[in-house]
Amino acid sequence: MTDTRAALAELFRMYQVGCEALGSPLWAAMCARFALEAEAGGPVFALLEPHAGSTFADAYPLRMLGGLHRLALDGDAPELTRHLPSTGGDGDEDEVWAALSAIVAAPPAVLLDALTRPPQTNEVGRSASLIGGFLLLAEEHGLPLRVLEIGSSAGLNLRFDHFRYEQGDAGFGPPASPLQFSGCWPLRLPPFDATLAVTSRRGCDVDPIDITNPADRITLLSYIWPDQAERFARTAAAIDIAASVPAVVERADAAAWLFSQLAPAVDDQATVVFHSIMWQYLSKTTRKGIRELLDAAGAAATNCAPLAWLRLEPRKDLTYPELRLTTWPGGEERLLANCSFHLGPVEWLG
Ligand SMILES: C[S@@+](CC[C@H](N)C(=O)[O-])C[C@H]1O[C@@H](n2cnc3c(N)ncnc32)[C@H](O)[C@@H]1O
Question: Is 312 near ligand 1, meaning CB less than 6 Å away?
């Protein structure tokens, strides 16, 4: 076996482990089969050979799986549509594999196009991790929040206060919200009793999804793994909520956009810069630029116009994401919670 084949197989095996860990047995099984096919120099090798040396973060296996899923969601791959659970299919692994391999052997334009872009997920389950930070800031400052999200994707998490969060008798958010998170805080509760108001919600993304555009909505759904019915339902509920809760998501690089948003400080509001699972996509220069911007804006922050940096990002060992908060004046950093990549238990540390 050549090194290139082995490298591509290795990439698929890394995603196999990821899909297993994050609850997609079907996509994990497909990654395992694509790994074997790559080793044998089959059609998937012909398709992805130019990217065999790419990194895990470049996510070529997920780009390809997203493109394949899109064909099924669009109704352009009837065999796949018949067998994927997300399109009402039976989830039969052999049938799904047969349909996927046939498409990979003669890749249509939609699939080739999907390879040119990184996957676009907007996981609203992350709001269950983020909410504790927003509530803590509202409680500590007693001010409404002006929220600025970088790497927003479709901006669904910018509507975090319109989702319902519950643990036992405690909770926050509209009780009748179509999006409910229940039982995620078994050990310790974030301050669900805080009074929280949002004055403005704005975000940016280098490749934003416009959820009012049907094709963009399919793009978003195509990156949800097809055997994850709950993620599909969560995203659909958040899209419904977003239709009546306006938020601006601009097409812009995070550093340049933050520069335009952070000055001047706004009185009688707490400005909260937040992000989830996007820091890894930034260059070192961009990360440094953002830290410098935050430090400069933090130096100008006052008790009437405080600044906060709330982020849900993976630990260095990539095992799970942590929720961290830095607040100005002062620049104090706190670890608020140990969390999950999608939706899962939140170990609130407060
Ligand atoms: C894995 S997605 C996470 C999206 C969202 N934050 C969430 O948690 O659901 C990462 C997002 O970061 C965006 N992104 C990557 N580099 C960026 C940059 N330099 N500036 C702004 N957004 C960026 C991508 O387009 C993508 O939408």
Answer: no
